[in-house]
TrEMBL record:
The keyword Nuclease applies. Keywords: Endonuclease, Hydrolase, Nuclease. GO terms for molecular function: endonuclease activity; hydrolase activity. This is Endonuclease/exonuclease/phosphatase family metal-dependent hydrolase. Residues 14-195 form the Endonuclease/exonuclease/phosphatase domain. The keyword Ubl conjugation does not apply. It comes from the Bacteria.
Amino acid sequence: MSDRPPAKAVLRVLSYNVHRWGDDRTALARVVKACAPDVMLVQEAPTWFGTRRKRRAMAATFDLRYVAASARNAIFVADGINLTGIRGRRIWRPFVRRRLNFIATQLPGGAVGGVLVLGTTRVAVVVCHLGLHPRGRVHEVAQVLTLCRSFDAPYLLAGDINEEPDGPVWKRLAEEGLLDLDAGPTFNSATPHKRIDAAQLSPQLTARLRHVPATHEDLAAATDHLPLLVELTAAGKRISSSCG
């Protein structure tokens, strides 16, 4: 007999840009714990010296485990959640001309994902963080979608798109046949007025966005983005697509 816990029929997936864990860490921990995610898809995870140590420490403040990363993206999971087939894609962003004729490049972007079992179905979860350069984002999202397809499973793709919904990245996601879970404005967290974070879903999956049970004060202090809390449901357990 296997000691592995039975697959869940419902998974709570939290996508969140944590601003390098550089704001109010206590408020951030309260927000994440209130969401009680099974899986957390992290953008702008801490980097530089002691990267893995910092990410493990951050995950621990949420009562989660750090299991995967690529560039500034990371995945944390709750106890009992088994993420397999983990793979990432590191994307070097194009050079950008700035003022004073200075040439610079942004930090590398990319995506990372893995496979979970939801009910009896293999489901991939993928997190990405696209760059600030418009032409660069189109290049990046094509590579992110290649990663998503490589799992050979229906998938949830979530992350910081750095572009509003009338842009070419969103058009490319729609062309891929993905369903958009519209959360409304996600940036900035204190006075949300732009929708630049996304949760996109293969049409074979059933999901809805859930209300984030946190105070405005904690959301504003925790980081500069609002989180997206997605509830994925196994086939045969249909739910409404609305927030609630």
